[in-house]
Amino acid sequence: MREHKTAEFQVTLCLAAGSARRTPCRSGYRPNHKDPVSGAYFMGQFHFDGEIAPGETTSATVTVIASVEQVDTLSRVGTWTLWEGPHYIGYVKLDQ
User: Fold this and answer.
1) What domain of life (predicted)?
2) pTM of this prediction?
3) Predicted local distance difference test score (pLDDT) of residue 1
4) CA torsion angle for 88, 90, 94, 96 (degrees, to 10)?
């Protein structure tokens, strides 16, 4: 079994305007996060003030639970996509 760890990142959360999601999200939102290199999914939860609707961008903190390799990849690549089932919802970009 792979070793997993919890990591917290300051990010910009961008929900796609043309995505399948039609309603705003609140803090605690937990979409599927997709590793930008392997394509594997991992868990993550966003924390931010107020709401974010499709087509909007906000600053957030994301807590992820992923393999050690995935956390290293996220730190190195700096961006990854968000999904709800088979539907693309948006992306995350690490704040510098």
Assistant:
1) Bacteria
2) 0.92
3) 58
4) 150
